[in-house]
Queue: 4 jobs
Job 1
Amino acid sequence: MIGSRKWMEINQGSLSFKEKINLLKQTLLPTTYKYAKTFIQSHVNHTHFALHDVQIPDTPMVKEAMAELENTQDRVIFHHSWRSFFWGVGIAHSKDWHFDQESFVIACLMHDLGLVEHLDQYSCNCFTYESALRSESLCLKHQYDASRTKIISEAICLHMNGYLDESNQDLPIEALLLQQATSCDVIGTDYARFSKTYAKDVLIQHPRTQFNSHFKKLLHKESLNHPQSRTALVSRLGLPYMIQLNIFKE
C-alpha cells in the first residue's frame, strides 16, 4: 500500500509517476468532499463527552515521547500534536471505536518530528518515515511490544495519505485515527463531530496561534527537500490553500 511502512522501506518515501496517479485516484475526491462539508456542517449537540474524560497514559514511553516533542522547541507543532490526540480520541468516541490509547498518543506526539527537526542519521525522502523510524527506536529502547510498535510506525507513515478507507480491515484503527485527527487539525475535516464545548476546551488548552502560516512553511520546506514525496504532491494540488481557507482562525 502506498505510504505504508513496508512501502517506505522499499521506496524511502519517493512516489513514482504511476503511484502519484493512483494516490490521486484514491484520495482526491473523498478529501475534497470532506473538506467542503466543513463549511456547512454544525457541531453535534451532545455534551456528555468532555476533555476531562480523556485519560493520558502515564508510562515511561509516553513521557519520553513527550520529551522528544518538547526538545524540538517548536510550540506550534507541540500544540498541533496534542490537538491531534484529542481530536482522535473524540473521533473514536463518536464512532465507538476501541483503540490502544498508549500507542495512539505516542504516534500523535511523534508523527511530525521529522518535519520540524531532521536528523542527519536519517536519509529518508519523506518526513513521516523519519518520524516512524524514530518512534521505532524509542519503542526498541523501552522493549515495547513488536505488534504495538508496528501499529505506531504504520500510523505515522500513513497519516500523509490524505484519506484512508475505513472498510480496509488491514489498517489498524490507530492509523485511521491519526490520519483523520491530523486532517481535522490541518484542514478542519470531522470537526463537526465534537460538541462546541469539547472543541473549545481543546483549543483553549492547545491554541492554534500561527499554526496555518507556520505549517505551510514547514510543508514548503519539506516539498523542496523531497520533491517526489506525498507532501510535495498534495502541496502542488492545493493543500496550502486548504489550510489558509480552513474553518479555524489563527
Note: The two ends are 35 Å apart (CA to CA).
Job 2
Amino acid sequence: MWTANLEISKKQGSRIFLLETFCGVGMFLPQAAALKSGETGLYTVLLGAIAAVCYPWLVQKAEGSLTMEEVLKKHRVISFLYYVRFFINAAFFYAYMLLLARVFLLPYMNIYWIGLPVIFLAFRMNGEGLDDRARVMEGLFWFILIPFIFILLLSMTEFSVKPFLIRQFEPKNLAVGGLYVLALFHPMELVWFYQGHMKEKGMNKKTLLGIIILSAGVFAATAGSLGLQMIRRDPFPVISMAQNVAMPGGIMARLDIFLIAFWIVGVFCVLSGYLFYGNWSFENTFAGKKKWGRWISYGGLFLITGFLIPMVRLWENYISVFLFANLLLGILIPAVLFWLERRGGTHEKDHH
C-alpha cells in the first residue's frame, strides 16, 4: 500500500501543500489575473490565494477523524473516477513540463528522451509510501523556492507602479478574476489524500501565508516589469520577466534559466502528486493490482509523450472548462462522499 508508512509531520504536509498548490500553476497567475481583471489583477490574485489557503481548514472540518482512504474503500466506482481524472491532470502538467523544456532548454532533443527521466523520477519518488514522498518534497522545498524568491527580488530594479493604479474599480471583474485564480489552484484538492495522515492536524500558518505572498509577488514582479498589455500578449510572461532581470555587474546573463528550472521542478511536484494519489485510487478499486495501475499510469504517460505538446493547444482552447471542472469536482465529490459517510453513521458505529 502507498500508505504503508502512514504518518507525515505537520511541516511536511504544509510544504507539500505549498509545492502542489502554488508551484505548478504560479506561472499562469499573472496572465490569468491580467486577462480577467486588468488593473485589479493584484487584488484578484490575493482574493484567489486567500480562498485557496482556507481550503485545508475546510477539508479538516469535513474529514474529522476520517481519512480519504477509509471513505474511498467503500466507493470503488468513485475511486476509479479519481484514477482517470488524476491521469488526465497528470498528462496536462506533464505536457506543460515538456513544452517548457522543449521551448527554453532542449529545443533539438527528441521529446521521448526529455520525458523518460521525468517518468522514471516520478516512478522512483512515488514507489515506497507517503512518508518517502513527503521527505523528497521537503528536500525540494528550499531548492525550488530560494532561486524563485531571489529573482522576484531582483525584478524590483525594473519595477513600475503604473500597472497597479486603479482608474475604474469593477467589483464584478474582481469576483470573476478571483474565482478564476482559485480554479488555477485546483491541485489544492490533493490535500484530501494526505491531511488525514498528518501527525498534527492543520497546516503551518507561515506556509499558508507564504502561498499568499508568493502569489502576490509573482504577479507584482511580472506586471511591474512588463506591464499589463505585455502580460496579456506574452505566452510566458513570467519567463520574460526573468529574462529582463540582470544581476549587478552582469555576473549572470541568463537568470531565466533558474526560473525555468523552478517551474519544471514545481510542475513535476504536481505531476508526481496526481500519479501518486491516482495509483492509490486504482489500488482501492482493484485490490492487489497495484503494479497494473502503475504500469498503466507511468507507461501510458510515456507512450503518449509524442502527442502531448500538440494537445496543449487544444487544452488551451478549453482551459476554463478544464480548470472549473477540476475545481468543482475537487470540492463536490469529497464533500458528498464524507457527508454520505457521516449520514450513514458507519464510522461512528465502528468506534462504539
Note: The first helix runs from residue 10 to 23.
Job 3
Amino acid sequence: MVKMNKIFQKRLSNHLVEMTKYLKYVFNDFFVIALMFFVGGLGYAYSGFLKQLSGNLWWERPVAIVVLLIGLQLGGLATLVKSADKVFMAPKEYQFHSYFSGAFIYSLVMGMIIDLITWFVLMPFLSISIGWGISQLIGLLLVILLLKTGWMAYQVVKLYFQLNHHMVMAFVTELVLPLIILVLALYFNVWAAALLALLITASLLYAASLIKNELLNWNYTIDHEDARMNRIYHFYSLFTEVPELSGRIHRRKYLDPVFKLLKRDQGHLYSNLYLRSLLRDSGPGSLYFRLVIIALILVLIIPNQIIGALMTVIFVYLVGFQLIPFYEHFDSNVFTHIYPVNQKRQLQNFRAIVQLLLLFECFVLLIAMLIARITIPIILITMVVWLIEGYVLTVPYLNKKAKQIRN
C-alpha cells in the first residue's frame, strides 16, 4: 500500500518538473538582462534612500512592520491536492495528515526563503533608522521565522474547518497576533517578542497535530490549491502560453463605441473578430490591461529615469509577446475555415490589431513618462526602441509564428 507521504513526494516531483518547464521561458536572455538592470537600479535607489535617513523618525518602524507583515503573508501552503482526490482519496481521508506534513515542510521552506530575503533587505534600513545591532537583527529573524512556522501550521488547521464560521479567528491568527508581536519587537524588546512568538507557534503546531482524526474540508482545500496554482499560471502567462489557464468571455458593453470604429466588410472580418475577442476574453484581454497598468505604475514610482524607461521597453515586449499567440485563436472554430477570406488577409488584420494595441500602450506610457518628468532625450530614445520592438514583433516574428502554425 502506497503511503500518503510518498504520494505527496511524487506530486511534488511532478510539480517541480512542470515549474522548471515554465521557468526556462521566464528567464530568457532578454528578461535576465532586463532583470539585472532592474535589480541594479532598485539597489542604487535603495542605497540613495538609506543615505538620506536621519534615524528615529516616526514612520520608520511602522514601515518596517508593514513590510514584514506583507512578507509573512507570502508563500502560502502548497497542498498539490487535485479535484479528483475528493472522490478517489476519500477512503484515505484520515491518513491525509501525513500527506499534509510533507506539504507543510515544503511550503515552510519556500515561505522562509521569502522571509529571509525580506529580512536581508531590511537589515540596513533597521540598522540606520533605529540603530539596531547584529544581536537584535538576529532576534528579529528568529521572530519572523517563528511567525512563519505558526502561520503555516494554521494554514494546515484551516483545511479541516468550515472557515465561514471562523473568519474572526483567521483574522486574529494570521494578522492581529503577528502585528502585535512585530510591534513588541520593534518598539520594546525583540527577545520578549521572540518568546511570545515561540509560545504561539508551539500552540498552533500542537493544534495542527490534533486534527489528524478530523474530517477534511475538501471544497476549501481544492479551491485553495486551485487559486494558488492559478496565481502561478497567471505569472507564467506573462511569458508564454499556459494551457492550464481558461478564460471567460465578458460582454463589456462600454467598449461598443470602440468596436463601431472598425469597418464591417469582408476585408476587415478578422479585425472585428480579433479585437472583440481580445478585449472581451478574461485571459489575454485582462492580461493586456494588467500589464499596461503595471507598467504605468512602475514608470510613475521608479525614481531613476533610465530604469523607468527600460521598464517601458520590457513591458512593450511582454505585451507584444503575449498577443502574438492569439493569432491561432480561431483555428479550432470550424466556421472560420469556410469564410471567403484567405490567410494572408487574416494575417494582415491580426497585425493591424496588434499594432493598434501596442500603439495604445505606448501612448499611455508616453503620458506616464511626461508626468514622471523623464527628460526628452531619454523619451525620444525610448520611442525609437518602441518602434523597433513593434516592427520586430509584428512583422518578422509574427510572420515566422504564422508560418510555423500553418505548417
Note: The CA atoms of residues 69 and 179 lie 7 Å apart.
Job 4
Amino acid sequence: MSKSSAETMKREEMKVLDVLEQHAKNSISELSKRCGLSSQKVARIIKNLEKKKLIWGYSAIADGTLRDFKHYVLLVKRNTVPFDISFKKELVFDKLDDYLPDLVKIENIYLTHGSFGGVVTFYAVDLLSAKKLIQEISKKIGNYFEVYLLLETLFPMRKFGLKNPQLNKLVEYL
C-alpha cells in the first residue's frame, strides 16, 4: 500500500469515527452521506475498526437527572508505593466493581500523569453514596493512594463530544 493510499485510508477512518461518535444511531446510508463516502466503504471501515477493537462499543448518552443521579468526579493522588501484580490485575480486569456500594454507577476510570494519579467519574444518588464509594475504594486501594478529592458536576456542557441539548439552563449555574 502506498503512503498516499494509507494516508487516505487513515483520513477516511477518522472521518467515519468523527461522524459515528456524533451520530451512532444513524443508518449506514445516513453516515455515508455525512462522510461523503459510499455506504459500502463506510460499512467496511466500521467493521474493520470494530474488528481491530478501535471501536469499543456503542452507548446512549442520557441525562443523569432523569434517574435522579448526581454526577461526581473523584481525583485520587498516588503515593510512592508501587502497584503489586495482584492489584494491577484487579484494576485492569474491573474486579474493583465488586466493592462498589449500591446506588453508584462507575462511568470512567483513568490512570493519569500529573498531580493526581487517577480520575474516576461516576453517578450516585446523593453525596452520602458518593462518599461511601470513597470509603470502599480507600479500604481496597488505600495503600496506593493518599488523597481523595471529590467534585460534584453541576451541569455538563459536553459529554463524549456531544453538546448538552439543554444548554439554555446553563445560565442558572453561572
Note: The chain has a mean pLDDT of 85.
